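Sanity check. The docking grid for zinc ion depends on where the pocket ends up, so I'm generating a full predicted complex first rather than guessing from homology. Inputs follow.
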Amino acid sequence: MLNAQVHDFLQQRLADRIRQSEFKSERFRDNGTIMSGLICPECGDKTAWCYSKEPWSINCNRLNQCGARTKTLDIFPDLIQKIEQEYKPTKEDPNAPATAYLKMRGLNGSLAGVKYIYRGNIRGTGSGGVMFVICNGATGKQIENGRLFNSPPGQGKTHNIGSTSGIFWIHPTLKYNPDKETYVVEGIIDALSLIELGFQAIAVLSAGQDPTKLDLKPFPKLVLAFDRDEAGRRALKKWKAAFPDSGAIMPLRGDWNDLLTSLPRDQAITYFQEKKPEMKLQAALALAQSGNEYADLFFDFYNKSPGLFEFDECYFFANVKKIKKETVVITSCVSNFTLSVGHYELDTTNQTEPENRYYLNITPQKGQPTACSVTAHELSAPTTLTEMFLRRIRGWWSGDRPASLALVRKIVEAGAPVVRQLQITGYGPISACYVFDNFLIKPKGNCIKPNKHGFFEIEFKNYLRPAGHKTINPARGKSAKEIWVLIFRTWGSRGAAAVAWIVGSWFVNQVKLAIGFFPFLSFFNDPATGKSFLTRILNTCQALNEEGLPMSQVNTAKGEIRKLAQRSGLFKALLEANNAEKTRFNFESILPLYNSNSLQVSALKSNDNRTKDLPFLAALLFVQNTEPFRTRAQRERVISLKFNKEDVTPETGQAFKELMAVPIEQFAHFFVEVMAFRQTIEANWQEGFAQAKTDLWEAIPDNRLCDNHALVLAFHRLLCQIIGVDYNLQPYIEKIGRQKFIDCSSRREDVSDHFFDILLNLDEPKEESTPTISNCLEIKDNDLFINVPESLKLIGRLGYKFNVQLKDLHDSLQVKIYNEN
Ligand SMILES: [Zn+2]
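Predicted complex below; grid placement will be based on this.
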């Protein structure tokens, strides 16, 4: 049997957990008795506190406004979820997980002599549990009754081996005193909780137990003490009928273990004794024969109306009125259903007009519960409420204005979790999580799956709902290293550079915040070298099943690209459009996206005409045969990877085939595997970047070009460490950086060269009416003025074909346009 040390150890762990949690404010102090300066999980106030040695709850200090006592076991459910991993059964102690679980439930001295065992994977649920061993006095057979540590959604937590009918549990070593009260509860943990507090209790094991089959003569002073829920109320009625002389109480919140695990033991005992009259009232209310009786009992105890209350699976509303100097409680039934709040949903699509929706679980008196969402408008008035319930569940609501307000207040103040609807897939600057349809990467790099409603719990009662753009559900298979090797075998160093850049693109927000830019990437040159296929694979490596967006569809002039991106901390590919549409794409307008730091608050504000401006939080990859970047400003912001036909060999073809055979779900797991190290990457990329700049400067002696290429090299080196690859990419990065340096330094022939070529070689026109070359060109104060329209007219008049867009010519000439009209 385990000693008290383990008990203390578990409470120590709970305390440590609070000390490291987000509920610690900057004013946190721990004097060994009390931890103060904690953040109330309910209202956010920073003066909450808890006991250092028995930290069962975080207690709000704003007693009149909030006063919440939040159970720490509820805030850190993983302490119990991981109990089987952390306290593994051993040869010496095969029941270690069960013991740890019971200790974590606050049970200690009461466990002396209690027979229990640990069973793993109960009912194939994957969860183990603690099973109490009970001997059936009549048959001499042993049965087991217990509960799962973590019951899956929709599955009961109780588990039995053998029938519990006619059997109840008594503590094997406790001497029951017949002159003292004995509490009758349903579960053994509830009974142990009361025994832990110094009372005597027995457990009847099942709410369905037939009281007449049990021999309870040894316990003449019975007090029925069932849970405060529907099953408990029903059990209470049944037992009260069988034992009319027994007393009855009900816990004020939850069950008796909740009482034990929300206060230090001494205070829990005091609380129990002080609140006993109120607990008796709760039992009396559960036993009331009618809504009227309920309201009268309530009024007699508290001297006030219960207002809206639940009775017989319906809502009742009671008003206190003075009639002829006499106080009368007037009660009426106002619905044929009850409800609870599943969650609140906060839609912040429009930043200035956030909208809340209410997700209710409505249980009709007869029939199946229905989950539905309700708008603020539907809750706003008695008539809209009546119509809403008719519409959603064919239920009726006949509450007047005060009753309706009470119901709405109940809904609004239910303290249900808040779910925030996201608009963007990928990195959320507010939550610092990467959110996809099927998974979420938390700030520490761990991957979590959505709950059954499709949303992610990132903190206690704080949920995110993904944007709803379909993403790939990652599956294990090929490791990140194996995928990297296949890409490398197919595309060599350019493949490695591309992978390094995309990993960097996942941190584009963090990078821009720190150094103010992130380079574009470009795949170019020969067709049929697998540029599109590589683009597709890189997309699957960030869990997106798509190739990219044809540039023609991107109306850059209107800033539409920001909306099209709708992703963050990921890259978006822009693919070459066919010739006819090429000209619509304006590279000048996307140049600022190299820098634009969209994490600035101003980008999140919407303007007066209420259109929302989605900030651009992604990185851009261009894929084409001929690079369309003409000006130096365009070229120097792009890292260019050249794909050549002669690099395609039978060996690369083989690797290509192997890549084709990998299911996309396994590529998506590349993201999960790499992002498990996001803390490492976030902590180390800047240092790696500085080193790479030093290493590359000799080959690329230009600040901007060296920075761009160094970033890729830095992410390559980090990635190598993480996935276990050893490959020196520096020579290749030096080569492409050097080439870019040369390209940017020399000016390539372009449209403007062609323009001057024709214009300056024209024969002077013979007729006087046509413009002459001197009409087209003029030098004033060392500036050359070009009359572009006249020049084109002249070129045309003389029979030359010069098919370029005016816009391209202007860009290429890099002129200021004067318009004298
Ligand atoms: Zn509070």
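Relevant for the grid: The two ends are 98 Å apart (CA to CA).
Also worth noting: DSSP finds 30 helices and 33 strands in the chain.
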